[in-house]
Amino acid sequence: MKSTLSHLPRRQKQALAIAADGLLLATSLYVSLCLRHGSASPGLSPGAQAFILAAPLLAIPIFARLGLYRAVFRYISVQMGWAIVKAIALYTALLGLSLFLLSTIAIPRSVILINAFVAFFAISGSRVLVRWWFTGGSLRGLTPKLGAERVLIYGAGAAGIQLASALDHSDEFTVAGFLDDAHDAQGHAIRGFPVFDPAELEGLTKSLNIKEVLLAMPSASRRRKREIVYRLDALGVGVRTLPGLSELAQGRVRVSDLKQVEISDILGRDAVAPNEALLHRNITGKVVMVTGAGGSIGSELCRQIARLTPKALILFERSEFALYQIDRELEGSGIPIMGSVLDEALLESVMRNYGVETVYHAAAYKHVPLVEANPAQGVYNNVFGTLRAARAARSTGVTAFVLISTDKAVRPTNVMGASKRLAEMILQCMAPTTNMLLTMVRFGNVLGSSGSVVPLFREQIAQGGPVTVTHPDVTRYFMTIPEASQLVIQAGAMGSGGDVFVLDMGEPVKIVDLARRMVRLSGFDIKDENNPDGEIEIIVSGLRPGEKLYEELLIGDNTSATSHPLILRAEEHHADETTIEWILKQLEDAIAADDAARIRSLMLEAVDEYVPANQPGLVG
Questions:
Q1: Among the three residues 92, 108, 134, which one is the final residue of a domain in this structure?
Q2: In sequence order, which residues have a C-beta less than 8 Å from that of residue 476 and are 6 or more positions away?
Q3: Which three-class secondary structure state does DSSP give residue 438?
Q4: Is residue 397 part of a domain?
């Protein structure tokens, strides 16, 4: 029977509720008369009997107007109790006025007051009983919580309702209502909480004293979440969110599922469905090797490659701890090899012994200030590591070699960017002389990678600030690590030899705006001259050595589309093979002598677009 009632159309449920209330209200008035007379048979006149039967007609419109029939009974809570109190009070007033006007009806006036109490317990008790029946005996959430933070839940769907139910068990939050974009839900009530139009948000935050909104929209697109978060941010309201559908699939929503909004929800774009044929082309059934397998990009490449059923996956990494972590995570689906990409003999041995067919070269030093302070090691690893890995791959019959490059290789202002551009040029020169498909994939910052700005800001916020921004005008492109890795795999499968692919990174983001948004979304006020009582200050620390205000993805404007909407093919010039060979020989000697000035001079000569920035004493 419970299942049958659960699946009745909403209007039929409302009709049943109205009929039940009518019966309860008439019975309550009769019981009140019995209590007043001290008898189970008070001997009513025909007029009194008619008055009792007509009384519900006064109450039902009031109950409907105050939302008692918009509520979903299985989700009623203490807020519904206040609505019933108001409804019974109005009903009692009308009942008393009616009895005064109909003075010929022989019903004592004191019955009206008695009936107020009886009717309240009958109406509220019926709803509590229905909830108890539908929820298997649970009555949690029917008592008010003192001192709890008032919140709105954005999303009145299944996840939002489950979250509201879970909050019954929490002393931290009390639900003030729902927000929902669906017009047919607005104006109704769920669990006794009204469902508001999000257009009313600004007024609601003030009238309901809302400091935080909980997003319960696990299936919403990133774009929609971003729109909501930006709007809440502008109102100074904190935001927490539930995880995505895949994370909720195993059970009901819990309060512990709530988390701060991920920055990827704000900066990331809606996912573009991958081209499955491209994903599988160089991986499925093949022996694949990832250098730098324990790094941010390398480890994500390994995760995605492992899901594409390679014949074998070689994890090549110089850091013992990083190799241990990714090997443990993949649970034996990879073959861990500890070594440096500068060890060409080891690379050849591994590639030949395992029959490697595809290489993703992610090993590199990437932190701009560190490479700027250690140019010999930075150039040695990034340039000669790439050269030796590519030579080892060529000599062992590898079919495809993909270099993970960076937007910092475009018109570089630092040694790291210049070293990555020289690494690209090495592969471009090598491409015409080999049957191996050499491909370079260039993209910007990835969210959450080691040493990147987002984890740094998160750490600074957790410590109470200040949050440091190097310059108020610095902008960067951002992409999530999984999206970047997936696009790298697809781009690598498009190569015809010597291709430079550029990933569409979306719109650049001002780092100072990112810092402000992260502070506010973490629930803190920004401390500045306009708000000296704020909690976290954002300070400008000055550009770091080699840092530039904005990054680019293309050296020129010569690009062509590919079969993937987020991948472009760049047509770029490069030095000839003779020049590259001479530069490499000179660099090798300068590195051996640890001659930083000579290394920088040679990098300037090798990479035409390299113009050092923030380097006192250097002229570029």
A1: 134
A2: 444, 445, 453, 508, 509, 511, 550, 551
A3: strand
A4: yes
CA distance 526 to 519: 7
Tokens of 353: 């012994």
Q: Sort 278 into a burial class: Cβ within 10 Å, 0-12 / 13-18 / 19+.
A: buried
Two tokens, residue 165:
């139910």
Calpha distance 305→165 (Å, rounded): 40
State the amino acid at position 12 in one-letter form. Q
Q: How confident is the model at residue 376 (pLDDT cuts 50, 70, 90)?
A: very high
Measured between alpha carbons, how far is 501 from 510 in angstroms, rounded to an integer? 25
Tell me the two tokens of residue 339: 């070594």
Q: Tokens 């108001």 appear where? A: 86
Distance of CA 495 to the CA centre of its chain: 32
- Helices first, then strands: H and E counts in the chain: 23, 23
- Classified as helix, coil or strand, 560 is strand
- With beta carbons less than 8 A apart as the criterion, state whether 308 and 284 touch: yes
Same domain, 67 and 160: no
Q: Is residue 254 part of a domain?
A: yes
Q: Which residue has the higher pLDDT, 282 or 70?
A: 282
Q: What is the pLDDT of residue 71?
A: 53
Contacts of 56 (CB under 8 A, 6+ apart): 21, 22, 23, 25, 26
CA distances from 235 to 174, 175, 211, 265 (A): 20, 19, 10, 18
The answer to the question of residue 518 being in a domain is no
Same domain for 376 and 420?
yes
Which range marks the domain in which residue 256 is found?
149-261
Token digits for 396? 């062992």
* Assigned token pair, 128: 């509590």
End-to-end CA distance of the chain: 82
pLDDT more than 70, % of the chain? 79
What number is the average pLDDT over the span 234-244? Answer: 71
Amino acid at 475: T
Q: Would you say residue 557 has pLDDT above 90?
A: no
Do the beta carbons of residue 413 and residue 547 sit within 8 Å? Answer: yes
Tokens of 569: 């093919």
Backbone angles phi, psi at 336, to 5 degrees: -80, 130
Element (DSSP H or E) covering residue 500: strand 499-503
Nearest in space to 252 (alpha carbons), one of 168, 144, 146: 168
* Predicted confidence (pLDDT) at residue 74 exceeds the cutoff of 80: no
CA–chain centroid gap for 130, Å, is: 37
State the DSSP code for 204: H
This prediction's pTM:
0.65
Determine the pLDDT at residue 591. 95
Same domain, 253 and 326: no
**Mean pLDDT along residues 411-424:** 92
Cis peptide before 612 (omega within 30 of 0): no
What are 87-131's pLDDT values in tens digits?
A: 778 887 887 787 777 766 767 777 778 877 887 777 776 777 766
The amino acid occupying position 400 is: A
Confidence at 407, pLDDT banded by 50, 70, 90: confident
What pLDDT score was predicted for residue 508?
77
Same domain? For 205 and 236 the reply is yes
